[in-house]
Amino acid sequence: MFRKPGRYWRNLSIFTLTLILFAAILFGVILSHSRAMLLIHPGRTIPLRTPSDVGLDAWREVSFQSTDGIQLIAWYIPVTEDLPSPTLIYVHGLGSNREGLLDQARVLYKHGYSALLLDLRNHGDSGGTLSTMGYQEIWDVEGAIAFLLAQPEVDEERIGLVGHSLGGGIVIRAAARFPIVKATVAESAFTSLEDNIEEGVRELTGLPPFPFAPLVTFFGELETGLDIHQLRPIDDLAQISPRAIMFIHGKNDPVVVVSNSHNLFNAAQDPKAIYIIENASHNGLMDADPAEFERQIVNFLDTYLK
Fold first, then answer.
1. Is the pLDDT of residue 205 over 90?
2. Residue 274's beta-bridge partner residues?
3. Contact 177, 145 (CB under 8 A)
4. CATH of region 45-192+231-304, choose from 1.10.8.60, 2.30.29.30, 3.40.50.1820, 3.60.20.10
5. What are the CA-CA distances from residue 162 to residues 32, 104, 115, 211 (Å)?
6. What's the mean per-residue pLDDT of the chain?
7. Distance (Å, rounded) from C-alpha 11 to C-alpha 13?
8. Radius of gyration of the chain (CA)
9. How many CB atoms lie within 10 A of CB 58?
């Protein structure tokens, strides 16, 4: 019986291994691209509740444009239409919508804070087809500020920002650029996107950081035309003082680890505050200890905004 020479089996093994390696690389590239697109084009969610469902009846749905022309949808909940009142703009996280911070708005409403809860671009019912991880979303906040300034019951000297996760980074960047913001609360915020991309890739996509984080970054930058190295909320903090900022973070946050808020706090100038919540993760910060959460955030806002 004829037997194939040894080099035949060696060449066949090399060819097979090459095919497997090529398939693995191709799979990794395709998977990284799809995950990057999920971050840039997150699936839209719509609110399952309205302010009425949490006992806030004096609200209306409003629309306005970001300063770069994106149509935005929001809930506006004024405390009173008679006297100027402090107002907070609430900025949700990636893939969320204006309902994300509704429970916090309910708590702060009873302490006299009007609320504007907006859907960011490419989220909820707002327009836009691209999420830029905080680059262009600051123009959404600027559009929200312009809307508030047109409302007679808003005290323009007492406008604040509250943001969670991606929204936390956005409100830091917005406060640095818009001096009319007098107080800022950044929850579960990140120091820079670059510093958190590896852990973020692991938690948000289920992929190991290497080699997928560089690939996800590459495809994200290619899709948005933006440079990830420029998205550094920690560098914006110097522009906020002497206006106040507070950092809130869950100690057990696996998505944006708690050291981010410690580093942000250390980089910020006075006045500043930090509240680290034991037994809290990335979401549901108020749920871990509602009474203490309320005490901490109200004390900060009453001191610097009211």
1. no
2. 247
3. no
4. 3.40.50.1820
5. 32, 9, 10, 35
6. 89
7. 5
8. 23
9. 14
Q: Smallest Cα–Cα separation from 265: which of 181, 139, 168?
A: 168
Calpha distance 16→23 (Å, rounded): 11
Structure tokens at 200: 């973020």
77, β-bridge pairs:
115
Is residue 165 within 8 A of residue 93, CB to CB? The reply is yes
Position 100 pLDDT exceeds 70: yes
Cβ atoms of residues 126 and 151 within 8 Å: no
Residue type (1 letter), 298: V
Residue type, 79: V
What DSSP character marks residue 277? E
How far is Cα 241 from Cα 244, in angstroms, rounded to an integer? 7
Q: How confident is the model at residue 204 (pLDDT cuts 50, 70, 90)?
A: low
Higher confidence at residue 226 or residue 244? Answer: 244
Q: Has residue 225 got a pLDDT over 60?
A: yes
User: Which tokens belong to 225?
Assistant: 């035309």
Least confidently predicted of 80-94, 217-231, 245-259, 285-299: 217-231
Q: Which helix (H) or strand (E) holds 246?
A: strand 244-250
Closest C-alpha to 277, from 260, 290, 266, 263? 290
pLDDT at 170: 98
pLDDT over threshold 60, residue 2: no
Comparing 150 with 199, the larger pLDDT belongs to 150
pLDDT confidence bin for 212, thresholds 50/70/90? confident
User: What is the CA 48 to chain-centroid distance, rounded?
Assistant: 20
* Domain ranges across the chain: 1-40+193-230, 45-192+231-304
